[in-house]
């Protein structure tokens, strides 16, 4: 036989085999063909890898008599086609039984009933794996009601909406916590974090709004006043509305306008409950002065949109009783005979405020508790207390027993008299603060315990913005426990290795 003929004869089977392979490759898959479990969909069928065919659960030997051997009356167990042995179905996913590593029989879950591990009760059918959860409805524990789908486990929260406790509205690292800044309450009511109280995001039902844009100070046919869309015009009217008993408030239970339904007493619009409200939002830029003297009440007043109070013929803000929290307000001007803020009773908390250019002093405290933080007192005129104590930026007098006396992280500069004066034997600590450039220079503080903060170099406070410049000796001077957690701008402290003195943290451009 010639070499050519011999070669042709020996190659013939190979050529034929190649032709069959080519034909097979061009042929559509057989109906019911599968190479993995997902090829069978989620209708309960199982991919029998050994024959590449989708079979119903009973035919595959899972939950049906076809999978039992020898009339065994016990639980149905799939038969391993490679070994002929029974193998219990696994809840941890597919498993190979053949010696060559191929998966002859599917040993995973088909539905949740195949998952016996209480920590992994849900069947992920694409792959036959039992997991902790696939969606929130799979999470039954009250302490972990949300599903982290990236890890298939139940956690306390994934987004803020998973946090149902009003005092813990923020989801942080899969745990709910109280809010720490107004930005964390964006889109909720007035966008105010009540961080000074219980850490909830304020709602419209607890808020009275003041703005000169689209406002009204008198009721009009039962129209609801003090809302975000129909605010009060003047500050004092809003303050008075919070202090009145529910039944006496001009807007008590009133609907927001329109035709009132006789059966329900509402007009289908938003109705504010007839209960005292404890938050006033003052929206700037220009607002009127106000006072508060309701004992036993706690009031929060927040400024938004560059809210500035300019005293007319009265003190800018006057507190005589109760507990009042002020934040993000600017009190300025008012003429040569006006004072910025006075507290002669109750308890006053001032945070992230500016009091400047008042004629007769910035902040006067006497016979009241006080907490003044992250605030600026600048360019205020000189005044006297009881006819003898000279002061300009702040006067800190008698504090009743059990009341706070805190003056921390403030900037007191360029006032026309002593920056901070303390009366009589009330030697209050002036801590973490800048007290500089006040006149006369020899009396930056008078009668107070000024705890040195800045270094020996220049203070270098910008006279317009009151921020520190890069060369200030007041940068990186305080440990975290000696300063507030944020500054007047809301910048977290510290921004460097240590916190800075004064109301502002220096942040490099």
Q: Mind explaining what this structure looks like?
A:
The radius of gyration is 37 Å and the shape is elongated. It contains 3 helices and 31 strands. With about 500 residues, the protein is mostly beta strands. Strands 9, 10, 12, 14, 16, 17, 19, 20, 24, 25, 27 and 30 form a 12-stranded parallel beta sheet that branches.
What attributes characterize this protein structure?
elongated, disordered N terminus, mainly beta, 509 residues, twelve-stranded parallel beta sheet, seven-stranded parallel beta sheet, 3 helices
Number of helices: 3
Main β sheet profile: 12 strands, parallel
Helix content: under 10%
| Separation, N- and C-terminal Cα atoms | 92 Å
Q: Count every beta strand, where a strand is a DSSP E run of 2 or more residues.
A: 31
Runs with pLDDT <50, length 5+?
2-27, 58-93, 95-104, 246-274
Mean pLDDT score, rounded? 81
Radius of gyration: 37 Å
Secondary structural class: mainly beta
The oligomeric state is single chain
3D shape: elongated
Strand content bin: 15-25%
SSE topology sketch:
Elements: H1 3-25, E1 46-48, E2 53-55, H2 57-60, E3 122-124, E4 129-131, E5 146-148, E6 153-155, E7 170-172, E8 175-177, E9 207-210, H3 235-243, E10 279-283, E11 286-287, E12 290-304, E13 308-309, E14 317-327, E15 330-332, E16 341-343, E17 347-351, E18 354-356, E19 363-365, E20 369-373, E21 376-378, E22 383-385, E23 389-391, E24 394-396, E25 405-408, E26 411-413, E27 420-422, E28 429-430, E29 434-436, E30 445-446, E31 449-450
Parallel strand pairs: 9-10, 10-12, 11-13, 12-14, 13-15, 14-16, 14-17, 15-18, 16-19, 17-20, 18-21, 19-24, 20-25, 21-26, 24-27, 26-29, 27-30, 28-31
Antiparallel strand pairs: 1-2, 3-4, 5-6, 7-8, 22-23
């Amino acid at each position: 036989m010639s070499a050519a003929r011999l070669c042709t004869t020996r190659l013939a089977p190979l050529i034929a085999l190649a032709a069959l392979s080519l034909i097979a490759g061009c042929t559509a898959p057989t109906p019911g063909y599968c190479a993995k479990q997902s090829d069978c969909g989620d209708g309960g069928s199982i991919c029998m890898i050994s024959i590449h065919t989708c079979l119903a659960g009973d035919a595959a030997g899972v939950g049906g008599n076809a999978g039992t051997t020898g009339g065994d009356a016990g639980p149905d167990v799939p038969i391993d086609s490679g070994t002929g042995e029974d193998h219990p179905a696994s809840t941890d996913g597919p498993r190979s039984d053949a010696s060559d590593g191929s998966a002859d029989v599917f040993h995973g879950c088909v539905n949740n009933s195949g998952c016996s591990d209480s920590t992994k009760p849900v069947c992920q059918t694409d792959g036959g794996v039992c997991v902790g959860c696939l969606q929130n409805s799979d999470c039954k524990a009250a302490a972990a009601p949300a599903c982290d789908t990236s890890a298939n486990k139940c956690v306390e929260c994934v987004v803020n909406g998973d946090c149902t406790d009003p005092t813990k509205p923020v989801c942080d690292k899969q745990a709910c916590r109280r809010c720490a800044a107004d930005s964390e309450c964006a889109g909720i009511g007035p966008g105010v974090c009540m961080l000074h109280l219980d850490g909830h995001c304020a709602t419209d039902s607890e808020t009275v709004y003041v703005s000169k844009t689209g406002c009204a100070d008198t009721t009009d046919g039962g129209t609801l006043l003090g809302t975000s869309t129909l605010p009060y015009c003047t500050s004092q009217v809003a303050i008075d509305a919070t202090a009145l008993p529910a039944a006496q408030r001009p807007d008590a239970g009133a609907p927001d306008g329109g035709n009132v339904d006789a059966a329900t007493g509402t007009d289908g619009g938003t109705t504010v409950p007839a209960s005292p409200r404890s938050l006033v939002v003052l929206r700037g830029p220009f607002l009127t002065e106000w006072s508060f003297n309701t004992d036993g009440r706690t009031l929060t007043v927040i400024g938004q949109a560059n809210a500035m109070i300019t005293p007319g013929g009265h003190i800018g803000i006057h507190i005589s009783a109760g507990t009042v929290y002020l934040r993000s307000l600017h009190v300025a001007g008012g003429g040569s005979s006006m004072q910025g803020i006075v507290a002669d009773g109750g308890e006053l908390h001032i945070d992230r405020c500016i009091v400047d250019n008042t004629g007769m002093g910035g902040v006067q405290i006497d016979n009241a508790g006080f907490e003044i933080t992250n605030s600026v007192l600048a360019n205020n005129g000189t005044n006297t207390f009881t006819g003898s104590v000279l002061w300009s930026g702040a006067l800190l007098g008698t504090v009743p027993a059990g009341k706070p006396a805190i003056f921390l992280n403030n900037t007191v500069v360029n006032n026309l008299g002593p920056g901070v004066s303390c009366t009589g034997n009330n030697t209050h600590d002036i801590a973490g603060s800048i007290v500089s450039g006040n006149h006369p220079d020899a009396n930056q503080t008078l009668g107070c315990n000024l705890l040195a903060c800045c270094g020996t170099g220049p203070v270098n406070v910008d006279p317009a913005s009151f921020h520190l410049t890069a060369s200030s000796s007041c940068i990186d001077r305080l440990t975290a426990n000696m300063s507030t957690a944020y500054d007047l701008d809301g910048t977290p402290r510290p921004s460097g290795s240590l916190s800075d003195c004064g109301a502002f943290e220096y942040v490099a451009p």
